[in-house]
Amino acid sequence: MNRPRIFLSLAHMGGEEQNYIREAFDTNWVAPLGPHVTAFEQALSDYLGENRPVVALASGTAAIHLALILLDVGQGDEVICQSFTFVATANPIRYLGAQPVFVDSERDTWNMDPDLLQQAIEDRIRITGKRPKAIIPVHLYGMPARVDAIMQIADQYGIPVLEDAAEALGSSYRGRKCGTFGRFACLSFNGNKVITTSGGGALVCPDMETAEKALFYATQARDKAPHYQHSEIGYNYRLSNICAGIGRGQMKVLDNHVERRREINRMYRKELSDLPGITFLEEPSTDFRSNHWLTCLQIDPEQAGFTREELRLALEQENIETRPLWKPMHLQPLYAEAPFYGNGTSEALFAKGLCLPSSSILTDEDVCRVRDAFTAVSNKWK
Ligand SMILES: *Cc1c(COP(=O)(O)O)cnc(C)c1O
Hints:
By secondary structure, this protein is of the alpha/beta class. Helix content is 38%, strand content 13%. The strands form four sheets. Strands 1-9-8-5 form a four-stranded mixed sheet, sandwiched between helices. It has a four-stranded parallel sheet with strand order 4-2-3-14. It has a four-stranded antiparallel sheet with strand order 10-12-15-13. The longest helix is centred in the C-terminal third of the chain and has 19 residues, at 254-272. Pyridoxal-5'-phosphate is lined by residues 59-61, 85-86, 88-89, 138, 164, 166-167, 188, 190, 201.
């Protein structure tokens, strides 16, 4: 049994990336600025629509950090953050000495529950006497959050929204791309995301003036002077011209990647949703279009006859990589002290949920191998 390993989510090159890299070498633009960076930013902005300037950065985490700086988050402030997410969503709040306030998910999208959001805002205002500085909903696993309801509440209280769209490039809500609803949005091009620059991210900004400020902080906050002069703290967060070249190549295949991930999701659901005790994360209505970055499901052990962990280990035996859903932030030792407004949803998801291999590079045969291994577990424990 030494069948090749099927990974959760792999980089998937389109072919043009190396031409752009070669061009960068040939012109000696081997630097954290250059023509590829500008062109990649323009391609992202065009793709998202809505005329939002985009600043290419070294990571999605850097984008969240800069957005919070531009939202004037600092010591003594609170920021509301979806609990069910990857830790990179929350950590930049702490970089700035602010306090995250975690909000649980709702059952359909697995993203921020609007009712709990409202409750949390009211409660924080009552306790601290001031409004939270920002709200960070996440489009987790590519599934758009309940954008309308969240934006309405945010507007009602005058609190800006930073969308974490790191997993949701290519997803849309009511025909509009994720990453264009909040004042800011972050994107990620880490190695396992829908497209990759080998490592990188971007900040989607509301206007040019803000984008220029983001760029200023991303390049060491240098004052306008011929010598190096600094009045503020800055960061070294710019994306390199080489990485942006990879990004330009990836933009040409982004829609294909999204279509393939959606197709893989359809295959899994068709083949596996009839098994007892298995429920997939599905688009709640036609308003929601997920890139299905990862196909996710929940296992009810009573009905299925096996637990999430038993399934994961059985698939691992077949050299198939799967992963439990994200462990919510309010359950992390790091954030044990942070306020949390919950309803049990993300805890249940963490206990029962699993991500299946979803790379756009997977072949139909790979998907069938996962299906067969999965079905075998179901039959064995029935
Ligand atoms: C990947 C990811 C990030 C961070 O992006 P990096 O580019 O890895 O820094 C942030 N939030 C979520 C939900 C992510 O999945």
